Amino acid sequence: MNYERNILITGGAGFIGSHVVKLFVRKYPQYRIINLDKLTYAGNLTNLADIENSQNYVFEKADICDHAKVCEIFEKYSIDGLIHLAAESHVDRSIKDPLSFAQTNVIGTLSLLQAAKEKWLEKEGKERKGEYMFYHISTDEVYGSLSTSSGYFTEDTKYDPHSPYSASKASSDHFVRAFHDTYGLPTIISNCSNNYGPYQFPEKLIPLFINNIRIGKHLPVYGKGENVRDWLFVEDHARAIDLIFHKGKVGETYNIGGFNEWRNIDLVKLLVRTVDRLLGKPEGHSENLITFGKDRAGHDLRYAIDSTKLKRELGWTPSLRFEEGIEKTVRWYLENQTWLDSVTSGEYEKYYQKMYKETSAKI
Ligand code: NAD
Ligand code: TYD
User: Fold this and answer.
1) What stretch of H or E contains 262?
2) CA 52 to ligand 2 center in whole angstroms
3) Minimum-distance ligand to the CA of 195?
4) Which atom of ligand 2 is least distant from the CA of 222?
5) Following CA atoms 307, 313, 314, 317 in sequence, which dihedral angle do they give, to the nearest 10 degrees?
6) Sheet holding 194-196, edge to edge
7) Of the candidates 209, 222, 235, which has an alpha carbon nearest to the alpha carbon of residue 287?
8) Ligand 2 contact via 267 beta carbon (within 6 Å)
9) Against a cut of 0.85, is the pTM above it?
10) 264 lines ligand 2 (CB under 6 A)
11) What distance in Å separates the CA atoms of residue 221 and residue 214, rounded to the nearest whole number?
12) Residue 309: helix, strand or coil by DSSP?
């Protein structure tokens, strides 16, 4: 079959990537979607079970840092668009192992940029047809930290990363802009606030705490729980990515966020109330699981995204109120305990090794 476009999505077996892959595979049967993922601890092919047999979907197990392999994939599928999500994404892990964050997030991004430059820009006139796009998915954490109650991150906020994770993402953003400015590579960057929803690896606050409340384990709130995060439902992020990929202006940056700030402690109490209610436990039953401990090193106080530009220029707004999104998310984790148990037990690693052999055999 002749596809209109061949779009490479990196990190498509992860949390946000799997939502983006599913959206694109279903919504655009005229596109071939190639999911490139190394399947680290955070990558899980069961997240894609609904679409794994679709005609227009292909999986490639590869490391974005393996430049020769990345170039081979660009050539093999005539890639003409890329949505780059693959990354090491957890701040606590970055504090323990900053080198692997620099490797994947910086060198890996550079390896993809270099492949796109070689394969797209070095093609001669008539060979270079179609809309090429290198779309880099980044985070609001590159902007640093805000004071408790005032100010927002806009697209013009100066970069000021504090954790090895945000420093590695900031560095990758700089390389993306450098390839646009130096070589004319058609790039776009978006910086999104904290995501939540189904299929998030239970090391991040929301799925970790839902699971801990479910099994009666303690809820380790860092510091006094006064840090503020701006939360967005993952499917709203995926819709924004779709819109920006198709309608965004080359060379631009878009902030994505829902103006939805929560102090960690208030969010944790909301999770406790919601899980207890859905499990039929009396109100306040699991509140005694909350513990206050040592703070995270370099813990950013507050993130808050101003996404006015995305609304004004492309008409994007979030679809869900936070309470609805949390209810939907808690229900999903409670109804998918097998998924939760498998990703916390390591069972899924065996599963995806088998799946990988089957999916790659189909190409
Ligand atoms: P995730 O950790 O759930 O998934 C990352 C995926 O990348 C996994 O499937 C993993 O196997 C893959 N991967 C890791 N290293 C790789 C490598 N070297 N080669 C190929 N694949 C590799 O992450 P996520 O939360 O879905 O985040 C996706 C992207 O969105 C990241 O770039 C992250 O910085 C960005 N982001 C995340 C959030 C959030 O709240 N989760 C918010 C804003 C931006
Ligand atoms: P996290 O989900 O790790 O996202 P990020 O660090 O990228 O914002 O953490 C969200 C907030 O919750 C952050 O302020 C750290 C805090 N937190 C805890 O208090 N306890 C925990 O066990 C975790 C994982 C996070």
Assistant:
1) strand 261-263
2) 31
3) 1
4) 19
5) 30
6) 194-196, 228-233, 261-263
7) 209
8) no
9) yes
10) yes
11) 17
12) helix
Structure-block tokens of residue 221: 């709130």
Determine the pLDDT at residue 131: 82
Do residues 108 and 161 touch, judged by C-beta distance below 8 A? no
Please give the pLDDT value at position 349. Answer: 64
The crossing angle, in degrees rounded to 10, of helices 205-215 and 322-335 is 50
Distance CA 108, CA 103 (A): 6
β-strand 81-84 against 134-139: which pairing, if any? parallel
Structure tokens of 337?
Answer: 């305990």
Q: Give the pLDDT confidence score for residue 167 in this predicted structure.
A: 98
Residue 16 Cα: closest atom of ligand 1: 26
Position 28: which residue type?
Y
Task: Say what the pLDDT of residue 129 is.
Answer: 62
Give the DSSP letter of residue 305. Answer: B
Angle at 62 between CA 60 and CA 162, to 5 degrees: 125
Q: Verify whether residue 141 is a known catalytic residue.
A: yes
Residue 194 beta carbon below 6 angstroms from any ligand 2 atom: yes
Residue 356: the pLDDT is 56
What's the average pLDDT block by block, 10 residues per block, for the chain (363 residues)?
94 98 98 98 95 98 98 96 98 97 98 96 68 96 91 97 98 98 96 98 97 96 97 98 97 97 98 97 96 96 97 97 96 95 76 56 40
Q: Is 108 in the pocket of ligand 1 (CB under 6 A)?
A: yes
Distance between terminal CA atoms of the chain?
Answer: 13
**C-alpha span between 209 and 333 (Å, rounded):** 11
Residue whose Cα lies nearest atom 1 of ligand 1: it is: 14
Q: Is 140 a catalytic residue?
A: yes
